[in-house]
Every structure is written in C-alpha cells, then in structure tokens.
Amino acid sequence: MMNKLRSKVLMLFWLFTTLLFILSIPFSALSSDASMFDPNKLSIVQENIKVLDGTWIADSIQEALTVVESFEDHKLHLCIIQRNEVGHYSIVSISSGILPLDDYYNNPHLLLDHMKDGHPYFDITTDKQWMYIELEKNDLGEWLVASLLIENLESGERLTCNCNVDTLSVWVYSIAYPRIKWPFLHDELILEDFDINSFAFECKRALSYIEEIKDRSYDYQALEIEW
Fold first, then answer.
1. What is the per-residue DSSP string for the chain?
2. Spatial distance between the Cα atoms of 87 and 171, rounded to a whole number of angstroms
3. What's the sign of the alpha-carbon dihedral 63, 67, 71, 73?
4. Residue 201: half-sphere exposure toward Cβ, Cα within 13 Å
C-alpha cells in the first residue's frame, strides 16, 4: 500500500515539475520560429498595405521584416512591423518602393534572419538583376540598411555596399578591390522612405571616383580609399 502511494506521489511530482518547465519557456521560444511566419494570421494596424511575406527577427514574434504591397503605388516595399501589448502589429519603418510587384510574384526570393541575431535580409533574383538588402537596428531603435548588393545580370555591373550604421559611411566596391569609403546621410541609410534608386546612384558616384584616380600609382589589388 505504501509503495503504491509512494509511486503516485512520485508521478504527481514529475508531472508538476514538467508543467513548471513548460510554463517557464518564453512564449517567443514556443512560437517564434521563422518558418511559422504566416501573414494571414497577423492583425495589422494599417489599412493601406498588404503583407505578402516576412520573417521573425532574432527568433522573436515581437518584430518581423516583411515585404508588403502598398495600395498607394502598388509596388513592393520592405517593412518592419512590431507587436504591441495587445498582440496587434503596426509599421515602425517602411521603405519606398523597391520592386514592381510582377518581379516579386514571378521570381524566387528569400526573407530570413538566418543567424537569428537581428540582421534580417531580403534576397531576390529576377530575369534582370540580383538584389540583396540586409538591415540592422541602431542604438536608437532605428532600422537602417547594413549591406546591399545589386547586380545587373545582363551587363554584369555590380554594386556591393557594406554600411556602418554608427558612422553613416559605406564601403562601396564592385567585386572585391578597389573599394572606397563613401559618406552618407542618416536619411539615406535609414529604412524609413529608403530610396533604392537614389542610394544606387550615389554608390555609382563612388565607383566613378575610383575610375577618376585609376591612373595614379596605386596597387589596385589592395587599394582602400578612405574619403
């Protein structure tokens, strides 16, 4: 009789311990896997956009990088959404249009925070170009472009940019070397109203500057021009 009682008590103890363990797991760890992002299950506090796809940032359901259709210009925009205390999501930062919607629908793309470290990216290859945009949050909580790559698949022309969100400067290069450190303004790097065409034009200016000084006696295998 005592053995049966002891067994029941032990079983209840293990059940209670298991329950405590489950309850101690943060909610985000239970339901924040990027593979579970479903735009159809989000409650968005915004009526002029449609969320097409997204990825959770840093393995948390509090923030996501999304691609959205704007009903105002019917283009594809990059957008950060954030969850409030009642579980609804609102836009905290949205770019200008980066692609025609047809390019998005007709070509493969990736939206990932691959390392789950708060550096989400959007990657797409169309018939004409390869585009990669990675984002990073600064100390003020603003989302900025951390790196960008645009390659014209017809001409082979490539822009590669590694951005420093603290100094607002960008290393611009084509493949590897030479590269140039080019200054940018805060409004040019921040995701809010980010204009990819203006950004790319400025990066082409940086590459053109390298061409202007190419006749000088530099070792172009290792040249790093600091503006």
1. -HHHHHHHHHHHHHHHHHHHHHHHS-HHHHH--GGG--GGG--BS-SSEEEEEEEEETTEEEEEEEEEEETTT-EEEEEEEEE-TTS-EEEEEE-S--EEHHHHHTS-EEEE-TTSSS--EEEEE-SSEEEEEEEEE-TTS-EEEEEEEEEETTT--EEEEEEETTTTEEEEESSSSSEEEEE--HHHHBSTT--HHHHHHHHHHHHHHHHHTTTSS--TTT-EEE-
2. 39
3. positive
4. 5
The predicted-structure confidence for 106-158, as pLDDT tens digits, reads as follows: 999 999 998 999 999 999 999 999 999 999 999 999 999 999 999 999 999 99
| Beta-sheet pairing, 179-183 with 224-226 | parallel
Answer for the pair 110, 78: CB distance below 8 angstroms, yes or no.
Answer: no
Q: Which residue has the tokens 């025609």?
A: 100
Q: What is the pTM of this model?
A: 0.80
The dihedrals phi and psi of 56, each to the nearest 5 degrees, come to: -65, 145
Q: Report in angstroms the alpha-carbon separations of 49 from 44, 74, 109, 195.
A: 9, 9, 20, 18
